[in-house]
Design a protein that fits this description.
By secondary structure, this protein is α+β, with helices and mostly antiparallel strands. It has helices at residues 3-14, 21-24, 182-202, 222-233, 272-285, 349-363, 404-409, 459-462, and strands spanning 32-39, 46-52, 59-62, 65-68, 72-73, 94-100, 108-115, 118-125, 138-144, 207-211, 245-247, 303-307, 310-314, 367-371, 414-417, 423-428, 431-436, 455-458, 466-468, 471-474, 480-488, 495-508, 516-523, 528-532. The strands form 5 sheets. Strands 9, 10, 11, 21, 22, 23 and 24 form a 7-stranded mixed β-sheet that branches. Strands 12-13-14-15-17-16-18 form a 7-stranded mixed β-sheet. α1 packs antiparallel against α3 (182-202). It is globular and about 65 Å long.
Length: 544
């Protein structure tokens, strides 16, 4: 369907975006706490995962085969004592995870999941073989970050700072906050991706989505994870039921929540207890290809996915470097308190893994894309030097610049991050760095007095607002994502990679200032395209 047809459906979604948690869950199938969603795609397999209220086995029917789940009580998805009772669902749910194997590459299959008498149906699509594409001649990836979900965001509208050309100009008085709350913005963002995914799949091109960290506002608070899955496999939408979802952690996914008073102090903030609780929730929800980590707690926190001609390498940068130094990405968490979080600096196991995977990807001719949360080059407050105090950032992305030499050595052209809560494109050491932290959290502005000399494009400065009275006609900073399209190049067997920054544009009613009547898919004028020589179409061994 075109997004023009989707606009009316999106308007309907807006009508339920701000209802209480209990009412929002009323239309969720009673047997399911989280509806079935797709993980860990391969050319011949995919994982279907869901969570149920009861501990009885469920079934998955796909490709004329019936598979039975083995439910496990997900104890790590319990609520802590500081979470509001009215936002809790009672006892922890049961985890069901079924790996469907023996499938054909780049092929769509209807599947049905039955749990306690209720059946939900969708369609899954496998990845192409390494080096190959779908029957439509390509593959498509969506990348975004900082959805930062929490039920409280249903009523939270962020400050809407005007672009430079409109500062002090004829901007309506009401336009001091974004037209919709953060929950609605994230829903519209996912609706855009869902429409484009459906279009791509109809054309025969498989699709993968990756969240670049800060999935939730506080990783240790279960209600925030409940909200994330309402969006992706629940009452707000079922995007992940049709598009395989990969994710990497950000610092918010490690945070226990607002620091609690005694005796609940260790439930919040970045204590070892709080971050371990948060890390276990992330691990419960996601499955990624094995990385061979010697500490099993590091499995799934960094990973490699081969998706046709693309190799996507994801890192965990949520607590790297030596404590309280210029290479520390988390100045409020001591490494000795968080052995469950891998380091990424030279000499660490994760760095050695990255070095091996980059070399192997280059040897097999893959299009290597790298993803991590902390953006090395940004004009946001995350670009301040590492440290504590007003002139520093406790979660600075600057330490990640140390990876540029290794990435450049192995021919990486593009790196995707999200830490700055804005759309910004920078170029350094021959590498394009994209900050796409516009998933659904606040839309930050460049930090006063901070200059990113590697910047190519930032929405605040390069997408000036164009107003007609009370109606925004074009431009401005908005919520969105990056779309990566890889297509076979005519004639020489190579590939063309196109990176498009997409945003959900709110269509305003001229007669009712500030009222949104629909949504349009638009792209910033920062589309980046490059060609890659032919990659071999050969089977690739599993990541070590």
């Amino acid at each position: 369907m075109s997004f023009g047809r989707l606009a009316s459906a999106c308007t309907c979604l807006v009508l339920v975006a701000c209802v209480p948690a209990g009412a929002a869950d009323a239309d969720v199938a009673r047997a399911f706490r989280v509806r079935p969603y797709l993980l860990n795609p391969a050319a011949d397999a995919v994982t279907v995962r869901w969570f149920s209220e009861q501990g009885t086995a469920g079934t998955v029917v796909c490709n004329d085969t019936t598979l039975t789940s083995q439910p496990v009580l997900a104890r790590d998805l319990d609520y802590h004592d500081a979470e509001p009772i009215d936002m809790q669902h009672g006892s922890p749910p049961y985890l069901h995870s079924v790996r469907i194997t023996g499938l054909e590459p780049a092929t769509s299959y209807p599947y049905a999941v039955t749990q306690d008498g209720e059946t939900l149906k969708a369609v899954l699509t496998t990845a192409p073989r390494p080096g190959e594409v779908g029957r439509g001649g390509g593959v498509r990836l969506f990348l975004y970050g900082d959805s930062a979900t929490q039920p409280e965001s249903r009523d939270e509208r962020g400050e809407w700072i005007p672009s430079p050309s409109m500062r002090g100009g004829p901007r309506p008085d009401w336009a001091k906050q974004y037209p919709v709350d953060q929950t609605t913005a994230y829903r519209m963002n996912l609706a855009l991706m869902a429409a484009r995914a459906a279009e791509s799949l109809r054309a025969g091109n498989p699709v993968l989505a990756c969240v670049l960290g800060d999935l939730v506002e506080n990783g240790g608070e279960q209600r925030d994870w409940d909200e994330f899955w309402r969006h992706n496999a629940g009452s707000f939408g079922t995007f992940a039921s049709r598009v395989p979802l990969a994710a990497l952690p950000g610092e918010h996914d490690l945070c226990g929540g607002p620091t609690s008073s005694e005796p609940l102090r260790d439930l919040g903030g970045y204590s070892g207890v709080a971050t371990l609780r948060a890390a276990r929730k992330f691990a419960t929800y996601f499955e990624h290809p094995a990385n061979g980590a010697t500490d099993e707690r590091h499995e799934g926190r960094y990973w490699r996915i081969d998706f046709g001609p693309v190799t996507l390498l994801a890192l965990d940068t949520s607590n790297g470097g030596s404590d309280d130094t210029v290479d520390d990405t988390n100045h409020v968490l001591d490494r000795k308190d968080a052995p469950h979080v891998p380091d990424y600096v030279p000499g660490s196991e994760q760095y050695a893994w990255l070095e091996r995977e980059l070399a192997a990807a280059r040897d097999r001719g893959a299009i290597t894309l790298v993803a991590f949360h902390h953006t090395p080059y940004t004009s946001s407050r995350r670009g301040l030097p590492p440290g504590s105090g007003v002139r520093f950032s406790e979660h600075s992305g600057a330490p990640l610049r140390a990876l540029s030499g290794l990435l450049q050595e192995h021919g990486v052209r593009a790196v995707f991050t999200s830490h700055g809560d804005m759309y910004e494109h920078s170029f350094a050491d021959g590498i394009h760095f994209f900050d796409v932290g516009i998933g659904g959290d606040v839309l930050e502005a460049p930090h006063a007095g901070l200059f990113n000399d590697k910047q190519i494009f930032v929405a605040d400065d390069h997408a000036p607002e164009n107003w007609d009275g009370d109606t925004l006609v074009s431009g401005g900073k908005h919520y969105g994502h990056v779309e990566v399209d890889v297509s076979r190049t005519d004639g020489d067997g190579g590939f063309t990679v196109t990176i498009t920054p997409v945003y959900a544009f709110p269509v305003l009613d001229p007669a009712r200032p500030g009222v949104v009547t629909g949504w349009e898919r638009r792209a910033y004028e920062d589309v980046f395209t490059f060609d890659v020589e032919a990659a071999p179409a050969a089977d690739t061994p599993a990541a070590p």
